[in-house]
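Quick one: co-fold with calcium ion.
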Amino acid sequence: GRNSFLRCPNSDHYHKPGSEKCCKFYALRDDLQDNLFTNHCGDNARLAVRVSFHDAIGYSKSNHSRGHGADGSILIFSDIETQIFPNLFLPPFLDQLKPYLTKYPGVSAGDLIQFAGAVGISNCPGAPRLQFLAGRPNATIHGDPTLIPSPANSAETMIARMNDAGLTAEDLVHLMASHSIAHAKNVDPTLNHAPLDSTPNKFDNQYFLEILLRGTGVPGTTKNFGEVNSGMPAQGELRLQSDSNLARNPLTACKWQSLVDDHEAMKDGYKDAMAKLAVLGQDVDDLYDCSDVIQKAPFLRSCAASYPPGKTFADVDKSCSAPFPELRSQRGQPTPIPQDY
Ligand code: HEM
Ligand SMILES: [Ca+2]
Ligand SMILES: [Ca+2]
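Sure, here it is.
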């Protein structure tokens, strides 16, 4: 019970007996929430989630010299890791994270990155409360940024890359739930905040439905690398080729379709896959559990996707032989997706 909790030194926060090492993370959490995220499922939350992936996936079971996974290398060796494409635009965000390393000397770069990802997404309604393990040693080598999947990859290529890192195809589909809160800021150079689903501030199932809608056009300019026709271009939604491929490939389509109407499965699947991602390349026996520091995300009422205005089952590229779920339809006219950074 609550009475067995102990007070952290010089603080209003309480920790479980034996978890005093977690105290520093309460202070860090409040600082990140007040200053980096402003308690909002906005751009910095999105970037923190993305960076937690790009740091961790720099790991290959078959060749340890290509990176030590979730080790903070993307911060420590940012000069090297941000030289190439997928990370080219991350320096302004990484520069906002770096001061927390100096301010919280007991927190390693790998811990800071996975912690920021977990705290960041806790601002997004409907997100799961992620596990957070602490104690990752600081990176000693940089990761190989070519290990990061490309938006032009086939499903097979992405699955092979995940397998090489120690993750499964199912983990990959579960991890894609992150794109329910995502913008493409750099895919189309004329669009700074092109959402990947109609609700980029909510961790909801719309993403899994909307990626399955038949592509009809692009929201901005054509022929951008890694972009394909979106089902909702007039509303400003952008579709990545990689997302489209995963939704339609026989290896992943049924898992994908199952997440259209099951918010619990989406949450639990993301939580479990993130627990694996967050410790890639790390020795779990050396880590300690500070999950209590992570707050619950705001509640989301919806538990299934609904057809955007004007869309019906006839617009779905059905890609799995199982029956497609019955979904509600949103009323009204198609309107531009609200921009809330
Ligand atoms: C595995 C295949 C994946 C590919 C090819 C991919 C690719 C991309 C691309 C191209 C963008 C747009 C970036 C921009 O234009 O600024 C993006 C955004 C994003 N990705 Fe992924 N991604 C993948 C998986 C993941 C995973 C596993 C996560 C996290 C668990 C993740 C989290 C995000 C987030 C949160 C954003 C939004 C960033 C923002 O709004 O600033 N992605 N992804
Ligand atoms: Ca790394
Ligand atoms: Ca969403």
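If it helps, The longest strand covers residues 6-7.
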